[in-house]
Amino acid sequence: MDKTVLAIDVGGTKTAAGLVNREGKILSSSRRPVVRDGLEKLVESLTEQARELLKDAAEQPCSMGVGIKGLVDDRHNCLVSSSILGGGQRKNLRELLEESIGLPCVIDNDVNAATLAEAAWGAGQENDTFVFVNVGTGTAIGIYDRGRLVRGSENTCGEVCNMLLSLPGEEGLFSLEAVASGQGLAEEAARLAPQFPGSVLVKSGKPVCAQDIFSAAREKDRLAERIIENAIYALTLSTVNMEAVTGAGLYVFGGGVVSDPLIFDRLRDGVPEFCRRYGLRLSMDLRISSLGAADAGLLGAARLAFTR
Length: 308
Fold this sequence. Notes:
Layout: E1 4-10, E2 14-21, E3 26-33, H1 39-54, E4 64-68, E5 71-73, E6 78-81, H2 93-101, E7 105-109, H3 110-121, E8 130-135, E9 139-145, E10 148-150, E11 164-165, E12 174-175, H4 176-179, H5 182-192, H6 200-203, H7 210-218, H8 222-246, E13 250-254, H9 261-277, E14 285-288, H10 296-306
Parallel strand pairs: 1-4, 4-7, 8-13, 13-14
Antiparallel strand pairs: 1-2, 2-3, 5-6, 8-9, 9-10, 11-12
């Protein structure tokens, strides 16, 4: 039985690698910007990152897990496509990592992986049914129902990034990820900028990120406040609708965007108020993941390795 595994989390902006034990403790780890120069360059970067950890390891791992932003065929344990690599054809990332690092590998979508970590080391220790909601660079959920991950026919269950909704005072429909994600917040800043020419986000003349928007919102900048208001509304509406579909009751939130109290505190308070306003008999427990926004993906990759 493996006591220690190598975990690799490939996200939209960074890669994390670490050695993790069966209790979910990260023994050592490193982070670096994600390489987007094609499959070979990504494998080369991940291999170098892994070897740095392995050379100083007190105990060599017997397997590795890889969580990646993208579509994974869980039946054949292979990556189908990822925006990190571009294109839609199958990518032999797992096989190349096994060859270069020398460990058997399990690969899956990063949010699925984080959901399994939550089940093993987080809220799942006391609850066999919950929804893990990741709002970071992108937005997606993992559904854990009575002790198992719900995958759907093509392992695409939980891609709520494509959920459509309307916004107060706006025409047309928006996808959830376009309004409530790190990338979405930045895109919203550009879209709404003409309405708020006096905003510090506009006057800077530079592309903005989620942290710029949070900082400006805390200074009562109206553009930033509008972006945050839209994100909270979108997440509130989506969470209520998810409960109507899943009946999970428990929603565990992870990811750097939603973990900011500026969003989560208002979301937690706003969901029950929304239900009362519209006469919905829904009761939900909303909480932030105890795994931490920075480590949930890495722990998810580790959990994949332990399920090999």
